[in-house]
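queue> pop job 88
queue> type: inverse folding (structure -> sequence)
queue> payload:
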């Protein structure tokens, strides 16, 4: 299985385009409790502001990706304007998942350095500025595809030098990470993970921590809890979810969930449904 398939299969990616056009002046406040944001600037200049944060000026066509909820708004020159497509992005049910945690608060990448994404950018803007039948679902699926390409490029070009993307760019560590992604229910041992990576136990443990900033079993726990969140949100009962993510009982999963998320699965679900 390739670098991203297991991840995106277990933690479903969804995008929803909510704005496309020429922004003049100040945008609305981009805020969400569960979603990140993807903005593609094709033309113009943007000044990005957020509460208690420094302002950022983007003066060339760029991708702006907020992987986690983060309040921000834009200001564009009223005479020149800025051509934008904006979408909300969700990776499954929770913000604990390792991919989201490995990314910076905002990833800003000039489009000139992402030449392989140019055809998809043109498709997105072509669809956005027309009123063809099926426009909304087409834009949403194109945005999801665009984000997969962006993540692929982040791995192959090492745009992110930390966390799981850095680990996936390391051929040896990637083999162990892919195993955990594909089989969260498996009783992984340090010996087995090290063998997949072609390293000794000690060398594997050190390399993993240095590259990802956590131990292999901390990573595995976060991954299991992330998959559990997605399954619980999808309506699966706790007693079915627990063995599917490597826990012998509902109580064992609840303890891990409480330790990593800070609340029980029931409390987490109740809060999710109330938002």
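queue> result:
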């Amino acid at each position: 299985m390739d670098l991203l398939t297991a991840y995106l299969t277990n933690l479903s990616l969804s995008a929803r385009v909510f704005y496309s056009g020429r922004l003049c002046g100040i945008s609305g406040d981009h805020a969400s409790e569960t979603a990140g944001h993807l903005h593609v600037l094709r033309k113009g200049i943007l000044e990005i502001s957020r509460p208690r944060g420094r302002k950022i000026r983007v003066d060339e066509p760029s991708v702006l990706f907020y992987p986690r909820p983060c309040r921000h708004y834009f200001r564009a020159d009223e005479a020149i304007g800025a051509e934008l497509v904006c979408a909300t992005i969700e990776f499954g049910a929770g913000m604990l998942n390792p991919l989201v945690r490995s990314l910076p608060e905002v990833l800003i990448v000039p489009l000139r350095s992402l030449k392989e994404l140019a055809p998809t950018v043109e498709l997105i803007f072509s669809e956005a500025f027309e009123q063809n039948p099926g426009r909304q679902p087409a834009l949403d699926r194109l945005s999801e595809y665009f984000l997969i390409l962006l993540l692929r490029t982040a791995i192959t070009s090492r745009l992110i030098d930390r966390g799981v993307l850095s680990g996936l760019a390391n051929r040896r560590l990637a083999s162990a990470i892919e195993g955990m992604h594909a089989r969260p229910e498996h009783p992984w041992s340090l010996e087995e993970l090290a063998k997949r990576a072609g390293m000794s136990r000690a060398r594997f443990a050190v390399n993993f921590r240095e590259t990802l900033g956590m131990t292999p079993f901390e990573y595995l726990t976060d991954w299991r809890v992330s998959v559990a969140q997605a399954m619980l949100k999808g309506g699966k009962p706790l007693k079915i979810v627990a063995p599917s993510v490597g826990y012998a009982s509902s109580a064992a999963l609840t303890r891990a969930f409480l330790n990593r998320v800070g609340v029980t699965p029931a409390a987490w679900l109740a809060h999710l449904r109330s938002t």
